Amino acid sequence: MVNNLSDLVNLTNLRFKIGELSKMAGVSTRQLRYWEQKKFISANEREADQDARVFSFRMYIKVLLIKHYLDEGYKLAAANEKSKDVIEDELWLHRFFEDSFKGIELIDGKRAVNLGFFDQENRQTLYGFNEGGKISYAVKPLPEKEEEQ
DNA sequence: CTTCTTACA
DNA sequence: TGTAAGAA
């Protein structure tokens, strides 16, 4: 259970050895090694001990995706391409939100989500806020900069 | 017990 | 891909 930020941070740093990953994803260790050989997945590092492969959480996701498409009937190579498409799209979505979300501000005592510039020309910013359970939008001019020019 | 590589079915 | 073998 994730209760605080440090837990979330640790989540992103989770590392799995091949046996764990195999059980988690329902894929044989033989498959994982083969997929790695095919460059479909990659061990992020090798544990000093027995030169054991160490996989990241991202790789776990990748394996799940390939497994998913494999179960759907795709051949391994095709399943890999499919998973790449999904990840690519997911990255785009992530970048989109990261670029769009400018934080939350308090406006007139209400929390407003800063959605970035609405009108670059007139220096207006778009906000989204709660209006009786519905999403309402409003624009607000950017504060004048005193030192400008 | 786990992982690794190599080799064979 | 599964499984076996020998090593670490």
From TrEMBL:
Signal peptide from the UniProt entry: none
GO molecular function, one term: DNA binding
Top-level division of the source organism's lineage: Bacteria
Matches recorded under Pfam families: MerR_1
Keywords: DNA-binding, Repressor, Transcription, Transcription regulation
Keyword Nucleotide-binding appears in the UniProt entry: no
Record-annotated HTH merR-type domain positions: 15-85
CDD domains (UniProt xref): HTH_GlnR-like
InterPro entries documented for this protein: DNA-bd_dom_put_sf, MerR-type_HTH_dom, MerR_fam
Family annotation (PANTHER family): MERR-FAMILY TRANSCRIPTIONAL REGULATOR, REDOX-CYCLING DRUG-SENSING TRANSCRIPTIONAL ACTIVATOR SOXR
Name used for this protein in its record: MerR family transcriptional regulator
